[in-house]
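Researcher: Hi, I'm a grad student and pretty new to this. My advisor asked me to get structures for two proteins we've been looking at. I'm not sure of the right format, so I'll just paste the first sequence and hope you can take it from there.
Model: That works fine. Here's the first sequence with its structure tokens right after it:
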Amino acid sequence: MNLLIMQKKISIGNCLLILCLYWTASALLPGLLYASDFTPVVLVEYQFNKKSYLITGEKTAPHTYIFNKGAQKKISITTLNWAPYIGENICRQGWVQQLTIALLASLGYEITSTFLPWARTVAVAETGAADILYPEYFIESTAPSDVYKGTNRIEHLALSRKFPGGPISFIKRKGEQDLFKGNLFNLKNEKIGVVRGYQNTPEFDAFMDIGFFNISQAVDDLMNAKKLVNNRINLIIGDPAVIRFSIVSSTLSQNEKQRMLQNLEVVQPSIQYNYLYYAVSKKKPFWKTTLQTLNAAMEQFETSGLMIDIIKTVNISCGFKMPEVLQPYEK
């Protein structure tokens, strides 16, 4: 089997990040290197504080990868498939995974990362079966726990400092009038597509709950995009990067993908920018120490520029179009 290795170097400030792209035969998972026994391997390679790091992640069980194997300290983290931010089978497993592994490896951890459906991911973290849940939106103080009835999620999880996320926006057909104009009151009775079970923003969801909009539910973002292009609804709500990726990675023909992408337009301004967080399980005896050291590493990565380097390099190398991610950091 032929293996083509490409390197891309980006230097910003005093930070140098080197990430290697490994392309394998199309029958294998894209963006993953395969060992001689066809075990998927994910690599994270970078330089920080004048020290070089090469972290290898090997698949050890279904949906489970161990990175930095043999390190003295151990940590268990749990996540979901949320492409192109993070995903088990996408290139480099996405920038959120690359950043997370780099952060925890810099703290000397052996990292066990498991991909699960979102509801199970939350349950694993709230019960203490994992140390960290990621990525997470800000947890409102009134958000109820789905595991411990009668309690709130924030009683079981502690949030880290924030890191880049993405916007929640409306998307319309290209060239059509923008009725939103930054004010939800302008959209009374408007036909809007949502994904069933998704949280959007507190204000939009509150309006939706009282029947202010004419809501059409779909099972996923791709179905919503199809309905919008085919004039069955007038707007959809979601993260533009996730919606774009759902189209590009679908089984639709190339002509249909191109038609959809050319006929969709993100409405400005966005409704809300959602930062991301790590949620540390309070069920672990040393959770305060975990949170403190994680926050310190995140601050170092951010102030040095390495956090932004990782995001930009992964997205450019993998061809992920996510310009909205860094908008608050480029003002």
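Researcher: Oh nice, that was easy. Here's the second one.
Model: And its structure:
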Amino acid sequence: MRACFPAREFDSFAYLTWVEKKPKASRTHDEATLKARYYLPLVVDMNDFAATSKIVRRAEELGYYGIGIGEHYSSPGESNGRPDPFVVLSMLVPTTSRIHLGTMASSATVRHPAVLANTALSLDALSGGRSFLCLGVGSGAETEYSSHGFRFITKPERLDAFEEALKIISGLSRDRKGFSYRGRFYTLNGSTLNLSDAFPQIWVGERKSRRLLELAGRYADVINIHCANPAQAQAKLEIAREAAARAGRDREAVTPVLKHFVVMAGDEDSLVDELERSDGRKEGESKEEFVERMRRESPEAIIGTADEVQDEYEKYAEAGFSEFSPIILPNSVGRIAERMEIFARRVA
């Protein structure tokens, strides 16, 4: 079991079986019954490509507010099978009518910001205003970046370039008469977006970075926060809101969407069985001690039965949070169908 679930391995957890024992009463489910907004991060690979529309249509029927698709590039000599997220999202537009479609996240240090902004705006216009653009710094290894000839190899370089890209995308979204910018990495002279439609929400994906929280406060509409508990989420949100105020924005300009890895099973025995596939119990360790150790080692994950996961989300709701992006592991299109049903009916 990893001490922390890496963002590029959402689909790596062993398949979870479901054994239902004494569940809380299920609700009759339609779009109106979800008490909060839930965005569902998905991993799409070419083996599951044909099933993507069916899964997303079902997510829409269950009441999920949005789905997000990540952007990853292959390591040297090893194809990862991942199609371009904007191509997949465009494919989903005519097969859906309500659900929001966005990236979770797009690597802002891979595409030129003007190209990325135009691509995101085109998707939003195509979807009738149902898209969002979640931006990430880029989590790929340095060997991955160098193999493709991407400009920003080291993590510090990427963070600096991300700041410039975010400034540019935000500027382009506001200044439709021609936006100019001169920085260390990018120079724009009167750049104008191709379409005049309203720009989609700009998200910043954050994980353990005060600088990203502050950048979100200054330039973004939404901050996608990794957190271990409501108090930590509130503390991170306060950093973003203070940055917004310093930049002359309304403190409430940034909306928090909380992100957790979710490992869930129908009962404790099934949960232990699945956790043991990744990390066995220590000698003399009880089932309860084992599960608690897994929770300590992965503080940003919600691990438990469906009832326990529901209890955790209720704590966040009581703290005033109402938008979430649960990474229900494993979240590949080919393996998430049952879990997204149970999450919607038993947790959301």
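Researcher: Is there anything I should tell my advisor about the second?
Model: You could mention this: Residues 7-347 form a domain with the TIM Barrel fold (CATH 3.20.20.30).
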